[in-house]
Amino acid sequence: MEGESPDEPTVIVDAESDEGVGLDTAALDEVAEAVRRVIAVDGGRAGVVELRFVGVDEIRELNEAHLGGTGPTDVVSFPIDDDPDDPLASLGGPPLLGSIVICPEISDRQAAGHVGDVRGERLLLGIHGALHVLGHDHAEPGERAVMQAREAEHLAVWGVEHPGDPS
């Protein structure tokens, strides 16, 4: 990808899709590459990110159990801050940086009214999740502006226009 240096940190994205979520390998690989790029460019350190695509029931459970949300959502992210019990780090490997979980059924449903197409929506959610893994947030207006600017820059690499602030 354009703008990357050859001495970037190694980022491994462990991507998988639950059976029945309707995500083909090419789509999974493209979102995984977008996540890898965000972590390498913005994070600047080696690490592993888990990327999963799940159904509505699982994303609802994750949202309610871990984030205090109600009902299903499109993406949830779980950053991990230097966990001393990280089995990868204890084996001398790159640390686990966090997990990103995307629900294609929800993202695909909202795509037309948000980014405009399914591909762009999935890329946005992967990038959004990766930025959360790196510690970005959007609870406050200033944070939201910074996060959206980073999202827009990363989406531009993929030829996707950022949808702007939904509020």
Q: What would you give as the CATH superfamily?
A: Metalloproteases ("zincins"), catalytic domain
* CATH architectural category: 3-Layer(aba) Sandwich
Under CATH at level 1, the class stands as: Alpha Beta
Report the end-to-end length measured between terminal Cα atoms. Answer: 32 Å
β-strand amount: 15-25%
Structural class computed from helices and strand pairing: alpha/beta
Radius of gyration (Å): 15 Å
Shape, principal axes of CA atoms: globular
Average pLDDT number = 84
Low-confidence stretches: 1-7
Number of helices: 6
What is the ordering of alpha helices and beta strands? EHEHEHEHHH
CATH topology: Collagenase (Catalytic Domain)
Tell me what the structure shows.
The chain has 167 residues and is α/β, with parallel strands linked by helices. The protein has one domain: Collagenase (Catalytic Domain) (3-Layer(aba) Sandwich), CATH 3.40.390.30. The protein has six helices and four strands, in the order βαβαβαβααα. The chain has a four-stranded mixed sheet, with helices on both faces. α1 links the parallel β1 and β2. α1 packs parallel to α5. The N terminus is likely disordered.
